[in-house]
Design goal:
Elements (H helix, E strand, L loop, with lengths): L4 H12 L17 E5 L7 E7 L4 E12 L5 E7 L7 H17 L11 E13 L5 H13 L2 E2 L5 H6 L16 E2 L8 E8 L2 E4 L3 H6 L2 E8 L2 E8 L11 H27 L2
Parallel strand pairs: 4-5
Antiparallel strand pairs: 1-2, 2-3, 3-5, 6-7, 8-9, 8-10, 10-11
Length: 270
């Protein structure tokens, strides 16, 4: 529901003051409680579900298919309940997260032989969202990739012998499969908003609506590897100073590390 002018002014003032006051009482660097689970879809190589306390929910499944080398290694698709396909938000989410995963994934982790490779199809559905769904979808993809397993090739020679039928042969025992992320971690894409000189992680829809704009950070290998601004409100107003961006990098570095560790514990307990 759109905020009235009075509500917008009150919330904007509350977020911009020192110290800031969020409507739900959270610290600027604190995420809302969430419920996360991995390995929920049996017909996939990996899967995950995350539910937020505001009702937001996302489910992601990962399928690995054998293809001839040379194509793009990752494809991300996402349906958003209540929105048409190819909506601006859907296109933004898919393009951003596909690029982040593709750039971070070592080609050797998908390699089967000189001729064949795995291609990852990452399919998500956002069942509901009140706040901007970028962080929600990114965390769910991260968790699903941590849960992804790839079947083990029987022998290198067997791949060449089966060129005539088109595909290599794999172990049928799933216990012999390997984790995609045995020595690699996927990227996390986090969104924070700026209000005055304050930076807030995991913003609610109302906070984003009155903010000066958003800052998107790609976290990988224990550091922020990408940064861009995002318009989080209907108007064209988006004002940042150098100090705000530097503060956002520091905040997102700290929170991304905490989120990564928390999601890894979810998979470890599965």
């Amino acid at each position: 529901m759109p905020l009235s002018i009075a509500e917008e002014n009150y919330l904007s003032t509350s977020l911009s003051q020192k110290p800031p006051c969020r409507p739900d009482g959270r610290d600027p660097h604190t995420f809302r409680p969430l419920d996360a689970a991995a390995g929920i879809l049996p017909a996939t190589n990996g899967s995950a579900r995350i539910r937020l306390c505001d009702g937001g929910e996302c489910i992601v499944g990962v399928k690995a298919e054998v293809e001839v080398c040379g194509g793009k290694p990752v494809e991300v698709q996402c349906d958003i309940a209540g929105q048409l396909n190819n909506s601006p938000l859907q296109s933004f989410l898919c393009t951003t997260l596909e690029s982040a995963v593709r750039n971070a994934l070592p080609p050797s982790h998908l390699s089967i032989s000189n001729k064949y490779t795995y291609k990852l199809y990452i399919d998500g559905i956002i069942l509901d969202h009140v706040s901007h769904p970028l962080t929600l979808l990114s965390m769910t993809i991260f968790l699903a990739l941590l849960n992804t397993r790839l079947p083990t090739l029987i022998t290198e020679d067997n791949t060449d012998e089966n060129d005539e039928i088109g595909l290599p042969q794999f172990e049928s025992d799933w216990q012999q499969s390997r984790l995609l992320c045995d020595d690699w971690l996927p990227p996390l894409v986090q969104l924070a908003v700026v209000a005055g000189r304050n930076v807030f992680v995991d913003p609610t829809g109302e906070e984003a609506a009155v903010s000066d704009g958003g800052i998107l950070a790609i976290w990988h290998q224990s550091k922020v590897v990408g940064l861009r601004t995002v318009n989080t409100r209907d108007s064209s107003r988006q004002v940042f100073n150098v100090k705000s961006v530097a503060t956002a990098v520091d905040v997102l570095t700290q929170t991304s590390r905490e989120v990564e560790n928390a999601l890894r514990k979810v998979v470890a307990s599965t």
